[in-house]
Amino acid sequence: MRTSAIGLTLATTVACVQAMFSQEARAGSWKIETVELMPGRSSMLPMLSLTLDGKGNPHIAYLRAGRFVHASKQTGSWTTEVVDSIAGSGATSTSTSGWTTSFQGAAIAIANDLVHVVYIGSPPILRHAVKVDGQWSGQAVDERTSSFLPPALGFDAGLNPHILYCGYPSPPDAHCSLKYAFRSSGVWHVALVDSTTTGSGRNAADNVAFAIQDRVPHVVFMKSRGFQYTLRYASKGSNWFIETITEDGGEDVSLALDSKGRPHVAWAANNVIRHAWRTDGAWRVEEFFEPAEPTWSMIAIGVDAQDNVHIAHCYEGGVRHFMRKESDDWDVETVEDKAFGVFPFNRLSMALDDRGQPHIAYIAIDEFFKENLFMRYAHLKLD
Length: 383
Prior knowledge:
Shape: globular
Structural class: mainly beta
Strand content: over 45%
Number of helices: 0
Radius of gyration: 19 Å
CATH class: Mainly Beta
Number of strands: 33
């Protein structure tokens, strides 16, 4: 493990694919369940988002055949419902503990026992919906929106929703900029975070991470120019403060805040997992787990109430969970080790429960019938 001090920061995104066929399997102390079989495989795997409610029940948002679906397990079995028949291209997740994991098109979160989702509709309009007394009600937040970048969703101490997404400063503008919306006293307020772009017709960021501490939003976003990835950090006081963290970024990033409000970020690049955190006014970076695996591995990070850092890592060989107590080495657990050579750009999202136990949702590909997909859910079974 190598450690260094650099300027760095937060973010979010996760993804992963597996190959498995059994309805339910066990890998060590991990329990794996099939949420839903999704026959037929498109060229783009469904994006997904996982969060937990106050009782620890899992909720997953994802796209299926052009429909935005909410799946939950509250009475011992999984149920699914369609939130919108015309949704965007993916999903992102946020937990009320203040960390976000990822994907394009939509986000799900629980606040005050109510399920909230934000998503990009068709035509591209940012929408917010909440489920009250068994019914979904929604409203448009911003009509100048792009479906290219995943939105991220969080809540402040007053349970007001905050959204990070890609949009346009004005209707004729050809470039998509990083935008931020929040609701106060029933009114949505929209502002620009970063209006710089990465090239003609490109958005201001390829991946974003978002977390709220009290009423302060923290953002990390990865910008690309060709194969050069720049990781940037932004936070908001009276104005937005933005700085470049490193030019040595990667395709996928994830963000978490610990109990002291310190940001932690994880990303993978050049076959190395990197974890960075801010302490004593400086950013520290460590590198670990260097397999000869594809560079484009996917990551989710979370920090539990005891400030133990959790990282879910998905790559072509399978899914692993890493956990480290402060100043200790990383413990590694295999969630699933079968991938059957599938393409590593797959979907994964992680949430931590009140006991600090990880829960992971991901897409699995049928081992025998490659056109079938499974929505899977894994959680660490306590002895």
